[in-house]
Amino acid sequence: QVQLVESGGGSVQAGGSLRLSCVASGRTFSIYHMGWYRQAPGKERELVASITSGGTTTYVDSVQGRFTISKDGAKDTVYLQMNSLKPDDTAIYYCSVVVYGPYQYWGQGTQVTVSS
């Protein structure tokens, strides 16, 4: 089992920045993929950014160049730095990890609201 706790969401004006954090606990040694997803009202959940245990990152096109995913292995934490935020970025953001099995775990979600 892996437990995930997210923080850092909030409200910001367009053009602003936020940094999300997700702290993992439990069987963290088995994590090989970490990601941030988001779900806006009436839309499906989408993968925003991901990072592997080796440090390879991927981004959805809509956030490329604006968002940066990173991790701190010593703290079992993954971050999502979000810059130049747009109203379309408004959503609930979820942290997720995949462990060998494979099994996927989810955080409780944190709200990000961007006003124009």
Write the layout of secondary structure elements.
Elements: E1 2-7, E2 10-13, E3 18-26, E4 31-39, E5 46-52, E6 57-59, E7 67-72, E8 77-82, E9 91-99, E10 103-106, E11 110-115
Helix content: under 10%
Low-confidence stretches: none
Tell me the strand percentage band.
over 45%
Secondary-structure content class: mainly beta
> How many individual β-strands?
11
Mean pLDDT: 96
Distance between the termini: 40 Å
Order of helices and strands: EEEEEEEEEEE
Radius of gyration: 13 Å
> Largest beta sheet, briefly?
7 strands, mixed
Report on the architecture of this protein.
- It contains no helices and 11 strands.
- It is mainly beta and 116 residues long.
- Strand 4 (31-39) and strand 5 form a beta hairpin.
Quick overview:
This protein has 116 residues and is mostly beta strands.
Key features?
single chain; 116 residues; mainly beta
